[in-house]
């Protein structure tokens, strides 16, 4: 009995040493083991501002969505950055600064539009006059931009939102000029 327990122990030790030797040999030889391909890509949306003739332009965004070419009726909701379900910021504080609005993995494909819903907006003119509220007809802003999401890659979009001072001063409507660009595509490593 003692002899067979010793044999089992020796065989188990030999098997373990052989397994370790094989694993080390595979790593040392540089053989590439198959990897699992990502089924989604990452979209990061950044926001910045061009200068305006205002002291403050405070905005609350409560939703952001992307439109896929393959399903033009189905908007893909993007999670906003932060712990809240909305993002509040002074747009003019973003001059030459970017703020991350969303980073989320979404299905690969071609996208043609982002939709940003503005919950609230108010402004302070340079003379101290406060305009509150500022209306955002019809409550959402569509940003036309064509971008592609590839599995495993990260696509970074930059939205430059410039406030249209004349529209705010005469009608209390926020009609910003929006320029969206693909800032960068980071391929899968």
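^ Assign residues to that structure.
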């Amino acid at each position: 009995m003692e002899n067979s327990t010793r044999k089992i122990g020796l065989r188990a030790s030999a098997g373990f040493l052989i397994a370790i030797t094989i694993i080390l040999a595979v790593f040392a030889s540089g053989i590439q083991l198959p990897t699992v391909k990502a089924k989604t890509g990452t979209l990061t949306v950044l926001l910045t501002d061009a200068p305006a003739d205002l002291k403050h332009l405070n905005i609350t965004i409560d939703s952001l969505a992307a439109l896929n070419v393959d399903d033009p009726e189905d908007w893909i909701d993007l999670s906003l950055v932060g712990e809240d379900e909305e993002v509040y910021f002074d747009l003019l504080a973003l001059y030459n600064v970017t703020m991350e609005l969303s980073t989320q993995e979404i299905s690969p494909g071609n996208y043609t539009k982002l939709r940003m819903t503005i919950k609230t907006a108010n402004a302070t003119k340079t003379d101290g006059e406060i305009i509150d509220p500022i209306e955002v007809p019809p409550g959402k802003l569509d940003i036309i931009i064509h971008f592609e999401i590839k599995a495993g890659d990260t696509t970074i979009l930059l939205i430059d939102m410039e406030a249209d001072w004349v529209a705010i001063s005469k009608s209390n409507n926020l009609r910003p000029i929006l320029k969206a660009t693909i800032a960068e595509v980071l391929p899968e490593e």
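The beta strands are 41-49, 54-68, 75-78, 87-90, 99-106, 109-125, 130-131, 140-149, 154-162, 177-186.
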